[in-house]
Amino acid sequence: VNGKMEIPVVVNVLYKTASENISLAQIQSQIDVLNKDFNALNSDYNTPNNPYSAVRANVGINFVLDQVIRKSTTKTSWGTNDAMKKTSGGGMAAVSPTTKLNLWVCTIGGGILGYAQFPGGSSSTDGVVIDSRYFGNTGTATYPFNLGRTATHEIGHWMNLRHIWGDATCGNDQVSDTPVHNTANYGVPAVGHRSTCSGTPLEMYMNYMDYTDDRGMYMFSNGQKARMDAVFAVGGSRASFR
Ligand code: ARG
Ligand code: ZN
Ligand code: CA
After folding, report:
1. Which residues are catalytic?
2. Residue in 150, 144, 130, 114 with CA at minimum distance from that of residue 33
3. 153 phi and psi, to 5 degrees?
4. Taking the CA of residue 69 as centre, how many other CA atoms within 13 Å lie in the half-sphere pointing to its CB?
5. What span, in angstroms and rounded, lies between the C-alpha atoms of 147 and 105?
6. What is the rounded end-to-end Cα distance, in angstroms, of the chain?
7. What ipTM score was computed for the predicted complex, to two decimals?
8. pTM higher than 0.90, yes or no?
């Protein structure tokens, strides 16, 4: 990505209650968080005692709010089966998914904060779903997931990033500058927390692709940036966004 990479974002809001019909200010707060987190401009980027400060990445991708579309629904929760992306299921179809990032904001249920489609899937379901209570950093945004990092994490998946623990005990996230983790971290781990995997490295629990509270995550690595860049490069699976 050349530093001018700009992704138009379509926000599809599905609401039953008034509080689910989040404000434009809350929507814009999420766009602002993304522009900080993907450009090393987040206020916690320089958190002290980060053993991985040397591999922190300025990903260099910008997000621009393209349009907000709202739809009233009778559904109290949508689950994770993509129903919110289909007009047949009472949802909203993706707008220009090969050139715009579609976000669906709704109540998911089941304790799920958000979920994403990886590159290479059907364009009709392409994009990211975020529960309205974990979207942006104002309005109905709810602690400890009230800083907009659910979207940062899910868009990481949308740009081909795996979980930092590789979804297995001491698993592989296909990124060489991230250490091997036992499993997901929750809350905010103590400084100096190590894995018991091979080499017992310090864990990179401050990475957006872990499962910590929003206030505990503040970086992507250079290796993750390379994976994201490859997705948008000529010949990459999302080259249509260039
Ligand atoms: N897919 C994860 C979930 O739904 C999202 C985790 C996001 N983490 C965060 N701190 N916002 O559980
Ligand atoms: Zn995830
Ligand atoms: Ca790794």
Report:
1. 154
2. 150
3. -65, -50
4. 14
5. 15
6. 9
7. 0.94
8. yes
User: Tell me: the pLDDT tens digits for 87-124?
Assistant: 998 999 999 999 999 999 999 999 999 999 999 999 99
Which ligand 1 atom sits closest to the C-alpha of 217? 10
Ligand 1 proximity of 112 Cβ (cutoff 6 Å): yes
Interatomic CA distance for residues 138 and 148, integer angstroms:
9
Assess whether the C-beta atom of 218 lies below 6 angstroms from ligand 1.
no
Could you give the CA distance from residue 22 to residue 35 in angstroms, rounded to a whole number? Answer: 20
Distance 211 CA to ligand 1 centre (A): 6
100-120 residues labelled b (16+ CB within 10 A) or e (exposed): bbbbbbbbbeeebbbbbbeee
Within a 10 A sphere around the Cβ of 64, how many other Cβ atoms? 12
- Cα of 209 vs centre of ligand 2, distance in Å, is 6
If you write DSSP's letter for every residue of the chain in order, what string do you get?
Answer: --S--EEEEEEEEEESSTTTS--HHHHHHHHHHHHHHTTT--TTTT-SS-TTGGGB-----EEEEEEEEEEE-S-S--TTSSGGG-GGGTS-PPSSTTTSEEEEEE---TT--EEEPPTTS-GGG-SEEEEGGGSSSSTT--TTS-SSHHHHHHHHHHTTPPPTTTTSTT---S-TTS---SS---S-PPTT-B-SSTT-PBP-TTBTTS---GGG--B-BHHHHHHHHHHHSTTSTTGGG-
